[in-house]
Amino acid sequence: MVEEDAGGKDAPPRKNPTLMDQMGGVSGIIASGVPVVVFVVAQALFGNLVASIAAAVGSAVAVAIWRFARGDAIQPALSGLLGVAVCAVIAWRTGEARGFFLLGIWTSLVYGGVFVLSVIARRPLVGVIWHLVNGEGQDWRRDPRVLRGYDIASLAWVAVFGARFVVQRWLYDSVYADTWLGWVRIAMGVPLAAIAAAVTVWAIRRSRRLLN
To answer: Mean of the per-residue pLDDT values for the chain?
Structure first.
């Protein structure tokens, strides 16, 4: 439906926000990793848990303020701030820097399990989320070719979350935790997510081509 502006002219139709928009865009995804990087660097430089926690929380607050000042979506930043706060509490309670990464390790296992179950149930989560957010219904599941593409995209995320859990869980209990866990967390963050995101984009474009 075409809307009219105050001058009586036809206004362009409103565009529904995409899944990437709701995640804060590329800048939002990158900004969400800033507190982790700050924590790892601060811990490497100063070796003081309290200082590292304060630096990470402070950077998360700064990111939220920065996004608010730019007029960007604030929800991803607030969610990130909450996550950092929980990680900080865990690290403080355990008294160990590696505790900062414990939530992310087990969250990866949960996310990976949910994606696996969605594929087994023939409702691959990538497709369900994309078509739900864009209000396109779930008729795409009737096309085996589209379903197969979303299976592949969902399994790509399973691979990412699974790799994160296996590697970081092993490091958490190893003698290398204090030295390598934080750096490995960074290396397995945005780079691996970018690969899975590329597969997701392929699946979405493929579904649009097959359904249209």
So the answer is: 86
